[in-house]
Design a protein that fits this description.
- There is one protein chain.
- By secondary structure, the protein is an alpha/beta fold.
- The chain is 36% helix and 23% strand.
- An eight-stranded antiparallel β-sheet has the order 3-2-4-1-10-9-11-15, covered by helices on one side. It has a seven-stranded antiparallel β-sheet with strand order 5-6-7-8-12-13-14. Strands 17-16-18-19-20 form a five-stranded parallel β-sheet, with helices on both faces.
- The structure holds 6-O-phosphono-alpha-D-glucopyranose (G6P).
- 6-O-phosphono-alpha-D-glucopyranose binds next to helix 10.
């Protein structure tokens, strides 16, 4: 949610910053801006409503010189997306410029205080007050920029990742974070700054992830200095980046989303690699092994997550209850954090997040921690905030996901949950050896099965044309496939803007069936599983009301073929793993319908990939 980039070094800052903004555009894309200190010490700020490309068009005729700068791509929270509300924001005298990701909760009182002192604001954002305050403190307390930032941040309530530059000091960027991510890249005589490592990776693999309430001082000719808000110096821990550049590019696909859908056979192989032994007789997640007793003694598992990760959590609930016989509750992190949840000794909280930065999930973790729970994270983004906030966990290892609609992260999350359930079940002895071995073998075969589904991409594209102009969709599934139906509906909503609802198939008759007529497409997941016959009855109920049924069926199925209007076959697999395979055609269907409608598939309206505000 909002992308931040900064550069200080010998290169021209503008191209580095613009490229960085493009890489971070998935975080927000309603307006963008850049601040540069030119050779003759002018602090130039250019901003524009719209995407980074609009900013480029706007800035190309301007003075874009300078070896130091900061830049921002916005997802509006306070103040509509327009030029004035875009970041960077100047201070009152225009000698400072600041960018911000997060929300300043007490900005109205701070702003009123500044206004009473005669300051006039130029935007409706919560952000502008910080840079005004910093300048005011510099002037009244006669302190340097870094000290003023420290003092100002003591007054600020809320979440922030900020970066500031000053025309009085063209060799310095001051950056700070609290609850919003910030990474510093360290090159040869140059520094990079960004919300995540994607803008940095092509220049250096040495990075420092800032922690909450830390301030980074990037100064030309000096080593990186990190302080806390109380001016205590902290030794920065330099980490080596594992991401490579090709993972951040489209690799010949028209959209990141399509690339990421097609990557899934490989990403799931990476997810499984090293965690299942050669013979397929053991599943080892180091986080589970390290905390074996906690998992064996667990009385209950609570899973907290948002969005697609919440759907993965619902599948996790089935897996863990089914295989490990541990009761599981799945909670929206945003609801959990504002209840007074009962956490008992022996409860384990699992937090699932692709980005590892979702504000609600982080807050749910902190709440559960404060009540004494053991917290296990399942994340994709290495080094992000959630893996650092949890006691232990597992990465899903599917590589950076850039398309805003999650695809490969979802299947990676379900794959890790499958391995987690198998590993606990084996140790608890709640699964017999034959079932365990069969499931592990099936799991190892999932990448090949996904590759087979992907062979049908063209056919799904053709089918999608029939539904380009549909206004509504219903997705149905039961058991393990109910969450897959929810996820299929979410994919369609997110990228095509068609209204879609996911339901447990049998629940239709309690109300939603009133919606069915010849205009209503219904996607029914009807793979051959333990409730296959029941699902068929539910499909019959739809057909009796003339609904158009697109069924996801197991290879070789004949029964549903005779009832449904359209069928997409997926390879047979063990029932607990069907949602992984069944999700793939739903991802493709949503993708192609959105493309037919001319939607911006990778950056759908109003959404952001990393939701760092609540
Ligand atoms: C945003 C994204 C969704 C994602 C959700 C949770 O809404 O657009 O795709 O599922 O956040 O994100 P997380 O990174 O915690 O999985």
């Amino acid at each position: 949610m909002c992308g931040i980039v900064g550069y200080l070094g010998c290169r021209d800052a503008y191209p580095v910053l613009i490229k960085g903004l493009h890489r971070l555009e998935y975080r927000g894309y309603d307006s963008a801006g850049i601040a540069l200190i030119s050779g003759d010490n002018e602090l130039n700020v250019y901003k524009s409503k719209g995407k980074v490309a609009d900013l480029e068009r706007f800035a190309e005729s301007k003075d874009i010189s300078g070896n130091i700068g900061i830049a921002h791509t916005r997802w509006a929270t306070h103040g509509e997306p327009n030029d004035a509300n875009a970041h960077p924001h100047y201070s009152q005298s225009r000698s400072l410029a600041l960018i911000h990701n997060g929300i300043i909760e007490n900005y109205t009182s701070l702003r009123a205080e500044m206004e009473s002192k005669g300051f006039t604001f130029r935007s409706n954002t919560d952000t502008e007050v910080i840079v005004y305050l910093v300048e005011y403190i510099m002037q009244t307390n006669r302190v340097d920029l870094c000290t003023a930032v420290q003092l100002a941040l003591h007054q600020v309530v809320g979440a922030y990742a900020i970066a500031l530059i000053s025309k009085e000091n063209p060799d310095e960027i001051i950056a700070a974070r609290k609850s919003s991510p910030l990474v510093v890249g360290i090159g040869e005589d140059e520094f990079f700054l960004a919300s995540d490592a994607t803008p940095i990776v092509e220049y250096t693999d040495r990075v420092v992830y800032l922690n909450d309430e830390e301030i980074a001082i990037l100064r030309r000719g000096e080593a990186l200095k990190v302080l806390n808000l109380n001016n205590v110096e902290i030794t920065p821990e330099i980490k080596k980046l594992a991401v490579n550049l090709s993972q951040l590019e489209k690799g010949g696909f028209p959209h990141f989303m399509l690339k990421e859908i097609h990557e899934q056979p490989r990403t799931l192989q990476n997810c499984i690699r090293g965690r299942i032994n050669m013979e397929g007789t053991n599943v080892v997640l180091s986080g589970v092994i390290d905390n074996r007793e906690k998992f064996l003694q667990a009385k209950r598992i609570i899973i907290v997550a948002c969005g697609t990760s919440w759907h993965a959590a619902l599948i996790g609930e089935h897996l863990i209850e089914d295989l490990c016989r541990i009761p599981v509750e799945v909670e929206y992190a945003s609801e959990f954090r504002y209840r007074n949840p009962v956490i008992l000794p022996g409860d384990i909280v699992i937090a699932i997040s692709q980005s590892g930065e979702t504000a609600d999930t982080l807050a749910a973790i902190e709440l559960a921690k404060s009540k004494g729970a053991f917290i296990y994270g399942i994340c994709n983004a290495v080094g992000s905030s959630i893996p650092r906030a949890t006691h232990s966990g597992s990465y899903i290892h599917v590589g950076p996901e850039i398309g805003v609609a999650s695809t490969k992260a979802f299947t990676g999350q379900v794959t890790v949950l499958s391995m987690l359930a198998l590993s606990i079940a084996r140790q608890k002895d709640t699964i017999d050896v034959d079932t365990f071995t069969r499931l592990v073998k099936e799991l190892q075969d999932i990448p090949n099965k996904i590759a087979k589904v992907l062979e049908q991409a063209e056919a799904i594209r053709d089918l999608s044309k029939t539904f380009t102009y549909a206004h509504n969709f219903i997705y149905l599934g039961r058991g393990y496939n109910y969450p897959a139906a929810l996820e299929g509906a979410l994919k369609l909503k997110e990228i095509s803007y068609i209204h879609a609802e996911g339901y447990p198939a049998a629940e239709m008759k309690h109300g939603p069936i009133a919606l069915i007529d010849a205009e209503m497409p219904v996607v029914a997941i009807a793979t051959t599983d333990s409730i296959y016959e029941k699902t068929i009855s539910n499909i019959q109920e739809i057909k009796a009301r003339k609904g158009k049924v697109i069924a996801i069926v197991s290879e070789g199925d004949e029964t549903v073929h005779n009832i449904a209007d359209y069928c997409i076959e997926v390879p047979r697999t063990a029932e607990p793993l069907t949602p992984i395979v069944a999700s793939i055609p739903l991802q493709l269907l949503a993708y192609y319908i959105a493309v037919n409608k001319g939607r911006d598939v990778d950056q759908p309206r109003n959404l952001a990939k990393s939701v760092t505000v609540e």
